[in-house]
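This protein record is not my work; I was only asked to verify it. Would you go through it and say whether the fold makes sense for this chain? Here is the record exactly as it was handed to me.
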Amino acid sequence: MAKQYFWQGWLLDNPLTEDPNDFTLKVKAGNMVTVGDIAKALQEEGTEFQLETLIDILNRGDRIIRNKLLAGFSVGTGVFYAYPSVSGVWYDKNETFDEKKHKVSVNFQLSAALREGIKQVGVEVLGVSSAGPEISGVTDTWTGELNGLITPDEVVTVKGRNIQIAGEDEGNGIRFIRVDDNSVIPVDMRRLTVNNPSSLSFRVPKLTPGDYHLELTTQYSAGGSLLKQARTTRFEKVLNVPEAEQN
C-alpha cells in the first residue's frame, strides 16, 4: 500500500542495552493540536458556524464524553473506543474497594478507521539525534506516579539525556506551561536538588489544578564545554495536577 503520511523521527541510544549501535526512534511530533485548531480546520472545510460556536460545540462534546465515562459508560468515536476499568486484586468476596490497592482508570482502543489509517503511515529516519536535551520520564516522588499526576510543592524526578541545567543564558531553567492558556510557571532553581546530565530532582511550584507541559532549557554539552546557544526540550507527555481532595 502506498504511504500517504510520513512520520519523521530521530534515532536515540537504546537505554535498555549497552550496545553503542542499538537505537530507538523518537517521533518528531508537531505542535499539539488543540480544540481551537480543530475548530479552525472545520472552518477551512467550509462550515458556516462561527469559530466561537465551533469551539463551544467541541468543548461540550468533550464534557459529555468525560461525564459518560465517569458514569460508567463505554464511549465510541471515530477516533477511539473508551472503556471504564478497575485494576487490582480482591482476595475475599466481601472485600470492598480500597484506593491503596485498586485503581479506577479508562482504557482506550483505536477505532477501525484510525487502525486502517495507520497502515498508510510511513517512517522517515532523520539520523542520529544531536546531543541536545531529551526528557524520557517524570516521576512524582510523593505518589510514585510515572508520566501522569504531579503534586504541587512536592518533589519530582526527571530522567533523560543531557538535561543538566548549565550556563548563564537568561532562558536557562525549568518551567511548567499550562495547556489551556500557555501561561508559564518557572521552577525556583533553589529547589533544584539534583542536577545531573541524566537526572533532575526539584520541588514542583504551587501549580493550580490542570494540565501542564514540562519544558527545560540548558547549555549543557556532553563534550564538557557549554553550548554557545541554549537548547530547549519539552516532555512529549502532558502532566496533570489534580483537584485537591475534599475531606
About this structure: The chain has a mean pLDDT of 91. The radius of gyration is 21 Å. The chain has three helices and 15 strands. The longest helix spans residues 51-70.
